[in-house]
Design brief:
The protein is α/β, with parallel strands linked by helices. It has helices at 36-45, 122-125, 128-142, 145-169, 177-213, 236-257, 278-281, 284-306, 323-332; strands spanning 2-9, 17-19, 25-29, 67-76, 79-88, 91-96, 99-100, 113-116, 220-225, 268-273, 276-277, 311-314, 338-342, 352-356, 359-362. Strands 2-1-4-5-6-7 form a six-stranded antiparallel sheet, with helices on one face. The protein has a six-stranded mixed sheet with strand order 8-12-13-3-14-15, sandwiched between helices. Helix 4 (145-169) packs parallel to helix 6. The protein binds adenosine-5'-triphosphate (ATP) and magnesium ion.
Length: 364
């Protein structure tokens, strides 16, 4: 998959223009505050995802304008297609091949990309939510029905939590709790089963990428961490059984608290570098290399499931990496269309674009 042409109108500070990138590595360079991240962000929006900077829709529209538009023609499944996002009235409207869609979820999976930005270092640094979201969003791009499993789980969880609170006031309601234990364990086991299957391949690939980036001098290990059992190679029915048991065991405590403490909504991923917890011990460069390896593994798995490589968007990835790690990145990704932003001009690549004050100039 690759972008043949990208055009944007009233998008943040970018001057209305279009860009025809190369099918492999594209370097976007320029001084601070010129529009490099804005360019990466507008490409990412075409996947149907939210701004990775957590921006509100109206913040994406250039100051003093009413709307913004981003459109790309891209090559996928052996044909040229178009995807467009119109941002207006504080919402984003998607169009696929010229046809307006009601929901952004309807275009997820059409134009596929993997994004790395310095914000993603929170994957290592922050709590479990971000790591769970990472696996869940990766799975949603591969298997759109996974989003439905998540939303069903969330509804059951809310209902069970409401019941736990109700039991505090009306203890006889405890008779109905086991129905919700069953439902939560059933839907949860479906999610856990897909997460385990994904993590199995993901762990192998991210550790291979990490070895490459560190020139075989360091190792990366990632694994699922759950509160209901310890082995991951289990059929779905057995996972359900484990979740159900742990729900029943904790039920008294959960009634006192009024919410559910066991289940897939509390899953986490461990990330270790050289067998040590990355959050507590890894250096900045190591954490960056780990997140990058995880993103590349995500891209490789997306490629495997779609039968074609996603576009890779790397915002400000090169800073904090030594020249050998930078070199590995630039050369290892030659079979993907890649956009890499950076401030310096001394990176040797065939396709370079300079951004100055929102204006993009092809320089090589
Ligand atoms: N809605 C908007 N309208 C106009 N300009 C905006 C809007 N939102 C952000 N900007 C401006 O866009 C400029 C470029 O931002 P961007 O984050 O793309 O810079 P950058 O080139 O990535 O810089 P750095 O190297 O520091 O990361 C900023 O100066 C910002 O003020
Ligand atoms: Mg930037």
């Amino acid at each position: 998959m690759f972008i043949k042409n990208l055009c944007f109108e009233n998008y943040r500070n970018l001057k209305n223009s279009s860009l025809s990138p190369a099918e492999n590595i594209n370097i976007i360079y320029g001084n601070n505050a010129q529009g490099k991240t804005n360019l990466i962000e507008c490409m990412w929006l075409l996947t149907g995802g939210r701004s990775f900077r957590g921006a509100k829709d109206r913040e994406l529209i250039a100051f003093d304008q009413e709307f913004a538009r981003v459109k790309a023609s891209f090559f996928s499944t052996s044909r040229e297609q178009t995807v467009e996002i119109l941002i207006q009235h504080n919402k984003r409207t998607p169009f696929l091949n010229g046809v307006q869609k009601n929901y952004l979820s309807e275009i997820i999976g059409s134009f596929c990309a993997v994004i790395f930005s310095p914000n993603h270092l929170t994957l290592v640094k922050n709590g479990p939510d971000e790591r769970r979201n990472f696996i869940d969003s990766a799975l949603c791009q591969i298997k759109p029905s996974y989003a439905m499993f998540l939303s069903r789980y969330r509804k059951i969880l809310n209902q069970r939590n409401a019941l736990l609170k109700a039991i505090q006031k009306t203890p006889s309601l405890i008779d109905t709790l086991d129905i919700w234990n069953e439902r939560l364990a059933g839907e949860g086991s479906l999610i856990a089963f897909h997460r385990y299957a994904y993590m199995k391949e993901f762990s192998k690939l991210s550790s291979q990428f990490y070895q490459g980036i560190s020139n075989n001098t360091e190792s990366l290990e990632t694994a699922c961490r759950t509160g209901y059992h310890s082995t991951s190679d289990m059929p779905r029915e057995e996972i359900k059984h484990c979740i159900l048991n742990s729900l029943r065991r904790k039920q008294e405590e959960e009634i006192c608290l009024g919410y559910t403490i066991k289940g897939v909504h509390r899953d986490d991923m461990t990330i270790k570098i050289n067998s040590k917890d990355a959050k507590s011990y890894a250096s900045q460069g190591q954490q960056r290399s780990a997140v990058l390896s995880m993103k590349l593994a995500e891209a490789a798995l997306l490629q495997k499931s779609k039968g074609e490589p996603p576009v890779i968007l790397l915002d400000d990835v090169l800073s904090e990496l030594d020249s050998q790690r930078q070199d590995y990145l630039i050369h290892r990704l030659d079979n993907f269309q890649v956009f890499i932003t950076c401030c310096n001009t001394n990176i040797s690549a065939q396709n370079k674009f300079l951004i100055q004050n929102g204006e993009i100039l092809r320089t090589e």
